[in-house]
Amino acid sequence: MEIVDSIDIETTAARENTENWDNYVNDAFYDDVSGLQQLASKAGLLTGCDVKALSGYWQTANNILDVSSAFGRVVSSLLQQGFKGQITAIERNNRQYQYLKNNFGKSAHILQKDLHHLNDLSENFDVIFFLWSGLADFSRVEQPSIINNLAKLLDRERKLIIDTMPMNTKPLGTEEFARQSFLTRGKTGVVRTYEATYEEIELYAHQAGLNILELIRCQTDTNRMRWLYVLSR
Q1: What's the pTM value of the predicted model, to 2 decimals?
Q2: Do residues 123 and 110 touch, judged by C-beta distance below 8 A?
Q3: What mean pLDDT is reported for the chain?
Q4: Alpha carbons 202 and 194: distance in angstroms, whole number
Q5: Nearest residue to 211 (alpha-carbon basis) of 186, 190, 232
Q6: What integer pLDDT is reported at residue 230 of this predicted model?
Q7: How many Cα atoms within 13 Å fall on the side-chain side of residue 142?
Q8: CB neighbourhood size of 214 (10 A)
Q9: Burial of 50 (0-12, 13-18, 19+ CB in 10 A)
Q10: What is d(CA 160, CA 222) in angstroms, rounded to the nearest whole number?
């Protein structure tokens, strides 16, 4: 993905509008499947090091839900690391969804769904993965409701695992407009992100009837840090 170091947008105006967006403005960015794969490689996540770090939670699971699956990085990692249960993958972007269907349709249940609207998904899952800063693709206003929607798919003692970047860490190739708000430009569009703090994740969890069971600090293949929050009832 072609990422520029500087973005021709008024920084002051951007700071004033860090919450004046929603997840739908990011759609075009994800039309570039190969670009997203390249970005995952630069982030050191293509080999599934985060999935490996979480193996204690998924090895005994019967069914796993991977949300915002994109090109299937987590699905591929689970299969390569020997997961034998049922995998369900959710992706809204049509190009990423078609890629998932073509490459993983025989080994996983692929759904094209919007995380804002999961009312018709009634199955309960042992583990839900929301990795590679998937939550950050939603504005601070949207994030609590997204966590609440996912929490409804968990029975007691099941796990929702959310990934963020540590505070004061700048995502690859981004322009920082505010302490936790970023904008990245790719070949097909821009992506706005908001990285939640520990306190915000704790609040979102509490509002959804969940608690932080564990915080796993994971170092990627390119020596970048990820925070993996394990949430449970």
Answers
A1: 0.91
A2: no
A3: 91
A4: 16
A5: 232
A6: 98
A7: 23
A8: 14
A9: buried
A10: 25
Beta-carbon count within 10 A of 110 CB: 23
Residue 14 DSSP SS3: helix
**Whether the Cβ atoms of residue 22 and residue 138 lie closer than 8 Å to each other:** yes
Give the tokens for residue 209.
């009837």
pLDDT of residue 19: 66
Angle, CA of 75, 103 and 54, to the nearest 5°: 10
- Helix residue ranges per DSSP H, the chain: 11-16, 33-43, 49-53, 55-58, 73-80, 94-104, 143-151, 198-207
Distance, in Å, from the CA atom of 16 to the CA atom of 41, rounded to the nearest integer, reads 33
If you count them, how many residues does the chain have?
233
Q: What DSSP line would sit under 70-112, residue for residue?
A: TTTHHHHHHHHTT--SEEEEE--SHHHHHHHHHHHTTTSEEE-
- Asked if the model's pLDDT at residue 2 lies above 70, the reply is no
β-strand partners of 161: 129, 230
Per residue in 172-191, pLDDT (tens digit) is 888 877 889 999 999 999 99
Q: What angle do CA 105, 1, 137 make, to 5 degrees?
A: 70
pLDDT one-digit tens code per residue, 60-76:
999 999 999 999 999 99
